[in-house]
Write a structure and sequence with these properties.
With 404 residues, the chain is of the alpha/beta class. The chain has 4 domains: 10-28 and 184-323, MoaB/Mog-like domain (Molybdenum Cofactor Biosythetic Enzyme, Chain A, 3-Layer(aba) Sandwich); 29-52 and 153-182, Alpha-Beta Complex (Molybdopterin biosynthesis moea protein, domain 2); 57-144, Molybdopterin biosynthesis moeA protein, domain 3 (Beta Complex); 334-402, MoeA, C-terminal, domain IV (Beta-clip). It has 7 helices and 29 strands. It has helices at 10-23, 165-173, 212-222, 237-244, 265-272, 305-323, 374-377, and strands spanning 29-33, 46-47, 57-58, 62-65, 79-87, 101-105, 117-120, 124-127, 130-133, 143-144, 155-157, 178-182, 186-192, 196-197, 208-209, 226-228, 232-233, 250-254, 274-278, 282-283, 289-293, 296-301, 334-338, 343-344, 350-358, 361-364, 381-385, 391-392, 397-402. The strands form 8 sheets. Strands 13, 16, 17, 18, 19, 21 and 22 form a 7-stranded mixed β-sheet that branches. A 6-stranded mixed β-sheet has the order 7-4-6-5-9-8, with no helix packed on it. A hairpin with a 2-residue loop joins strand 25 (350-358) and strand 26. The longest helix is centred in the last third of the chain and has 19 residues, at 305-323. The chain is elongated, with a radius of gyration of 32 Å.
C-alpha cells in the first residue's frame, strides 16, 4: 500500500499499446459466409471477376427497338412498329430485331439483338402485333450498359473495411459466397473482488453487483472482439493466476489493479510475465496497468466502473481494434461545441471529463467520481483535457466525444 512512485504519461502508454500491436504475429484471417459477414472487417482487397451487369438490359417497361427508327415520332405523328416478340427478365429473345420492328420488354430483361434503346410504354399504343410510337429515343436510352454497376477486374472493396449490409449485396452480385475477414480477437474478461455478486444480482448488505463485466463484454463486442467471461474470480492469487494463464489474445483484469494488499494482479503479472506499465498520469484510471503474459496482452483495469470504462477506451479497446484489423481510433463521433461554463482540471494529468450537451453548449456533468457509473449514462459524451492544461474557460470550443 505504498502508492505509485512513478506514473506513466498517457502518450507513452498509447505508444506502448501501438508498438505492442505491431509486434504481435500477423493477424489471423478466416472465411465467413455472406449471411454472417455483416460488421466483420475485410481482410483483403476484393476484385470483381465479372461485369455487373454482364449484358445490356432494359431499365424500363416498354419496347426495345432501334433508336434511329423513332426519329420524328410524336403524338401528332406516331410511327408504326411490328411487334416480333416479348423479352422477360432471365430470358433471351433469339429473334434479331430489324428495321421497323420492336420487342415488348420488361425492366431487367436482356436487350434483344439488333436493338439499342427502349421506348417507355407511356409513349406507345399497341394493338395485336402493332405498336405506335409517339416519342423519340436516342441510342442507349433506358438501357443499362455492360459493367454499368461493376467492371470486370475493378476493385470493389478495400481491405480493413467494416462490411455494411449493402457491401454484402455487392459481394453477392459478383459471385462471392465466402468472404475473407479478420478473425476476431479472443478477449478473456476476469472480474475480481470478494465483494461482488454476479452481474444482474440484487445488491445485498455490503455486497455489490458486478457492473464491469456486462459493460466490458459489450465494449469488446463493439470493438470486434469475442469476450470470454468465466465468472467472478475471488481475491486469491492462486485462483487469479490460474484464470490468467488460460489462452487468449487479450486478458482484461477488472479490479485488484492498484497497490493494496488484495491487489494481486500487478504482482502476478510482474512475476510470471511482464508488467510494462503500472500507474498512469490521468484521472480517472490512474491505477491501470498493462503488460504481457506469454502470448497474451494483459490490461489491468481499475474496479471503479468509470475508471474501468476510461482505461478500456483509452488502451485495451485500442489494441483490440487493431488486432481485428480496424483503426486504432475511437469509434465515437466528435462534435466541436462551446463550453457553457469553465471545465477545471489539474496540470500534469489527462482528465476524462463527462459532459452533457444542452442547447448546443457543453455542460460538465455535475455527478463525478470514479465509482459513479451513472455519471456516464447521464452524460452525452466526454471531453479529454490534456496534461499540460488546467482546464478550459467558459465559451472555449472543445472536442466532445459522443457515447451514442
Amino acid at each position: 500500500m505504498k502508492g505509485f512512485a512513478h506514473r506513466t504519461t498517457v502518450d507513452d502508454a498509447l505508444q506502448w499499446v501501438d508498438e505492442t500491436a505491431r509486434s504481435l504475429p500477423a493477424m489471423r484471417t478466416e472465411s465467413c459466409s455472406l449471411d454472417s459477414a455483416a460488421g466483420r472487417i475485410l481482410a483483403e482487397d476484393v476484385y470483381s471477376t465479372v461485369h455487373v451487369p454482364g449484358f445490356p438490359r432494359s431499365m424500363m417497361d416498354g419496347f426495345a427497338l432501334r433508336a434511329e427508327d423513332t426519329q420524328g415520332a410524336a403524338p401528332y405523328n406516331p410511327l408504326s412498329f411490328r411487334i416480333v416478340g416479348t423479352a422477360m427478365p432471365g430470358q433471351v429473345v433469339s429473334t434479331e430485331v430489324g428495321p421497323g420492328q420492336a420487342v415488348r420488354i420488361m425492366t431487367g430483361a436482356p436487350l434483344p439483338q439488333g436493338t439499342d434503346a427502349v421506348l417507355p410504354v407511356e409513349y406507345t399504343e399497341s394493338t395485336g402485333e402493332t405498336m405506335l410510337a409517339s416519342g423519340e429515343v436516342s441510342p442507349g436510352k433506358h438501357v443499362g450498359r455492360v459493367g454499368e454497376d461493376i467492371l470486370e477486374h475493378s476493385k470493389v472493396l478495400s481491405a480493413s473495411r467494416r462490411l455494411r449490409p449493402q457491401d454484402l449485396g455487392v459481394l453477392s452480385s459478383i459471385g462471392h459466397s465466402l468472404i475473407p475477414v479478420h478473425s476476431r480477437p479472443r478477449v478473456r474478461v476476469l472480474i475480481t473482488g470478494n465483494e461482488l455478486l454476479p452481474a444482474g444480482s440484487r445488491p445485498v448488505g455490503v455486497r455489490i453487483s458486478d457492473a464491469n463485466g456486462p459493460m466490458l463484454t459489450a465494449l469488446i463486442q463493439r470493438d470486434g472482439g469475442v469476450p470470454d467471461c468465466p465468472g467472478l474470480i475471488p481475491d486469491d492469487p492462486v485462483a487469479l493466476l490460474s484464470a490468467m494463464q488460460e489462452p487468449a489474445d487479450v486478458i482484461l483484469i477488472s479490479g485488484g489493479s492498484s497497490t493494496g494488499q488484495e491487489d494481486h494482479a500487478p504482482r502476478l503479472l510482474a512475476e510470471y510475465g511482464e508488467l510494462a506499465i503500472h500507474g498512469l498520469a490521468m484521472r480517472p484510471s490512474s491505477p491501470a496497468g498493462m503488460g504481457r503474459l506469454g502470448s497474451s496482452v494483459v490490461f489491468l483495469l481499475p474496479g471503479n466502473p468509470v475508471s474501468c470504462l476510461c482505461a478500456y477506451d483509452f488502451f485495451a479497446g485500442r489494441l483490440i481494434r487493431q488486432l481485428g484489423g480496424q483503426s486504432a481510433n475511437w469509434p465515437y463521433r466528435c462534435r466541436k461545441l462551446p463550453l457553457n461554463r469553465k471545465l477545471v482540471s489539474v496540470a500534469g494529468r489527462v482528465d476524462y471529463a463527462r459532459v452533457r450537451i444542452i442547447a448546443a453548449k457543453v455542460e460538465p456533468t455535475a455527478v463525478s467520481g470514479a465509482s459513479v457509473l451513472s455519471s456516464t449514462t447521464l452524460s452525452d459524451g466526454f471531453v479529454v483535457i490534456p496534461a499540460d492544461s488546467e482546464g478550459f474557460p467558459e465559451s472555449t470550443v472543445v472536442d466532445v466525444w459522443l457515447y451514442d
